[in-house]
Design brief:
The complex is a heterodimer. Chain A is of the alpha/beta class. Chain A has one domain: Flavodoxin domain (Rossmann fold), CATH 3.40.50. In chain A, strands 1, 2, 3, 4, 5, 6 and 7 form a 7-stranded mixed sheet that branches. The termini of chain A are far apart. The chains are: A alpha/beta, B alpha/beta. Chains A and B meet through helix 2 and helix 7 of A and helix 5, helix 6, helix 7 and helix 9 of B.
């Protein structure tokens, strides 16, 4: 059984960023099977804890739980609204508080929302490089949804649905092909001192 | 069990009146704080080591020797000695000299330091922090135990036939702690040598400290120095007290809100819920401190941070009077809970544990 984490940085209620995140999660679960666990992390309620983590150096409270959910997942869907030609500051803050190496090898699907399609390169010019730096494995298809993609009444028009399905298929494929129990606990699996001394 | 204070040595503007002590005042105040700590019955005074403003303790053994000359009983220590950027030969010489001057009334704690530019200023690379700590300490450990040392490593000029002088007092090297906030490798290092492990504790939640100490205890037993419960553990703590807890909160809040490291972040209430910081009555500090053993086990040293964030000297001295009372209450309570086979104190100069070679401590 796989565990899928979804990080969404949408701010409004209802949020098109959350809507896109949910559609991506549903499509991925559709591929992985209904027993897949999904943990959705909304960043807006964590805004205060995130700011505190920058001031104190440690994630506290619900943020600590969210970090654990995301870093221990088998795959991640990360969705942000576009702010000033990039991911939002809140979105970046969450990934800034993760430990070095916490997302190493993690299959990630990147997605973004904005008012117009002119922002769509944010996927490849901002999100993809950030996750590459974090050594995550980003699936080839990113999903961008502009306002016009939503059509009327919240239904998803053809082309967006196609992209969602393709990206979800890629993510599910990476998750299924991935060995379980990837992450080691540095407090349980300590490197023996003789090894440290001779390295 | 030993109780004491540890200072960062920060020169910080008092946020309530805008006054900033001079370096001279801060250094002399530190001496007065250490003397007061002895007067109120504390066991340990420890100073940090820093090489950049706004800190004053760049030469910890100078300060500790001066304090040693003005005190009779209090043990002198560090929090921490920078094992990464300080030449281990200098550490061996400086601290052995201190050990002689104060007749063994000292120990020291190894730390890596965390301000990036300090590493290049001393010709080191912060990305090598762990390997530096491991190699430098391995050399220091030998310098205090062997004469005519031949040594070659990655980070320092090789040594041929080097004898560090003075030799440790009575052939008995100072007891060493290893302090780390978040590196399992350092807990493993402390366990390997059978040295003490100190969790700074004050900026991080209890769950994290519990994991670090748990690892150190497990590995202390693995490396054959005794049972996990017998490992030598120290913890940081932080308190501000007034008889009436509302007065403590009112008085400390501006210092908290503007404190270096965590100021302008969480509220005082959030931070006291998440970390060992207690702002309130002496009784509240007693209760919170006793609670530490519930997640780290019975331990040997408790240090408190009392003199930071621009608190004026007068206030710090008042705090130490209260801390003296708190510690009087804490001592019997900790000992009543401690199993007979778990040592109360860390090894001291001349104590059987410290006199034994590392391999024989179990």
């Amino acid at each position: 059984m796989s565990r899928l984490a979804v990080v969404t940085a949408g701010l409004s209620e209802p949020s098109s960023t959350r809507l896109l995140a949910d559609l991506l999660a549903q499509a991925t679960v559709g591929r992985l099977g209904p027993e897949t666990e999904v943990d959705v992390v909304e960043l807006r309620p964590l805004a205060h804890d995130l700011a505190n983590a920058f001031a104190t150096g440690f994630p506290a409270g619900e943020l600590a739980d969210a970090v654990e959910k995301v870093t221990s997942a088998d795959g991640l869907i990360a969705v942000t609204p576009v702010f000033s030609a990039s991911y939002s500051g809140l979105f970046k803050m969450f990934f800034d508080v993760l430990d070095t190496g916490a997302l190493e090898g993690m299959p990630v699907l990147v997605a973004a929302t904005a008012g117009t399609a002119r922002h769509s390169l944010v996927l490849d010019h901002a999100m993809r490089p950030m996750f590459s730096y974090l050594k995550a494995v980003v699936v080839p298809t990113g999903v961008f949804a502009a306002s016009e993609d939503w059509g009327s009444g919240g239904s998803v028009v053809g082309e967006l649905r196609t992209r969602i399905d393709r990206a979800a298929g890629e993510l599910a494929g990476l998750i299924s092909g991935r060995p379980a129990g990837r992450r080691t606990d540095p407090f349980a699996d300590v490197v023996d001192f003789e090894t440290l001394l001779n390295s | 069990m030993e109780f004491g204070i540890f200072t960062v040595g920060d020169v910080t503007t008092d946020p309530t009146n805008g006054t900033t002590p001079s370096e001279h005042e801060r250094i002399k105040n530190t001496i007065e704080i250490a003397r007061k700590a002895e007067e109120v019955g504390l066991d340990v005074f420890a100073t940090g080591q820093h090489h950049n403003p706004p800190f004053i303790p760049s030469a910890p053994t100078t300060t500790l020797a001066y304090i040693g000359a003005q005190t009779k009983r209090i043990k002198l220590s560090t929090s921490t000695t920078l094992i990464t950027t300080t030449d281990p030969v200098r550490i061996a010489e400086d601290y052995a000299t201190l050990q002689h001057l104060v007749d063994g009334r000292m120990d020291l704690m190894m730390g890596r330091g965390n301000t990036g530019p300090v590493y290049p200023w001393f010709g080191k690379d912060i990305r090598q922090g762990i390997p530096l700590a491991i190699e430098h300490y391995a050399l220091l450990h030998r310098l205090w135990r062997e004469e005519n040392v031949d040594w070659q490593g990655r980070f320092r000029t090789p040594l041929q036939g080097f004898t560090s002088v003075p030799r440790p007092l009575d052939g008995n090297p100072p007891f060493v702690w290893h302090g780390s906030i978040r590196s399992p490798e350092i807990a493993e290092q402390a366990a390997y040598y059978g040295d003490g492990f100190f969790a700074n504790h004050i900026f991080w939640p209890a769950s994290h400290t519990e994991r670090m100490i748990g690892l150190y205890r497990r590995r202390f037993e693995h490396h054959g120095h005794g049972t996990a419960a017998q490992a030598i553990v120290g913890l940081g703590g932080q308190a501000f007290m007034r008889r009436n807890s509302q007065d403590a909160v009112r008085e400390f809040r501006p210092y908290f809100d503007n404190a270096p490291v965590y100021g302008h972040g969480p509220s005082l209430e959030e931070f006291t819920a998440q970390t060992p910081l207690t702002v309130g009555s002496p009784q509240q500090v007693i209760e919170k401190t006793l609670g530490f053993r519930e997640y780290v086990g019975d331990y040997q040293r408790q240090l408190f941070l009392m003199d930071h964030a621009g608190l004026p000297l007068k206030t710090v001295l008042e705090q130490l009077d209260l801390l003296g009372e708190v510690v009087q209450d804490l001592r019997p309570q900790f000992e009543a809970l401690r199993p007979a086979d778990v040592p109360s104190d860390p090894p001291a100069h001349g104590s059987p544990l410290s006199a034994a070679p590392v391999e024989a401590r179990a």
